[in-house]
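Milestone M4 deliverable, item 7.
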Amino acid sequence: MGNPAYLKSYEPAADHEINILTLHKSKGLEYDVVIHLDLYKWVFPAMGPKEGKDWKNPEYLSYQQDLNLHYVRVTRARKACALVSSSQRTNDKGEVKDAEDSVFIWLNNIKDLRYKF
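Output delivered:
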C-alpha cells in the first residue's frame, strides 16, 4: 500500500478513459459497461488434456474457479455486459485456430437477454 504506482493502478479512469482490468482485479468494483473478452472453448473456462496428454478427450482444468470468476465479471456491470467471442482465436503458440464459443456464453438461457442487432 506504500507504493504510489501500485495505488494509482486502482484509481478510476477519467471520463475520456476506460479501465482495463483482469478478472481478479475487478472484484468489488462496478462499471456501467463491462466487456468480457476471450470467451472461447479451451480459453475460458480453461481446458487441457487428461492425464497422459490425451488431447482428444480434454477436460476443464478449473471449471468451478473459472465459473466464479465469470460470475464476478458479469456482475460488475450496472447497465450492460458484452460477452465477446469470434470465429477465430490465437492459441498460446501464436497459431490462428477456428474458435468455438465458451460454454459460459450460453449458461442459464442467457440468449434470452441478448440485444438483437
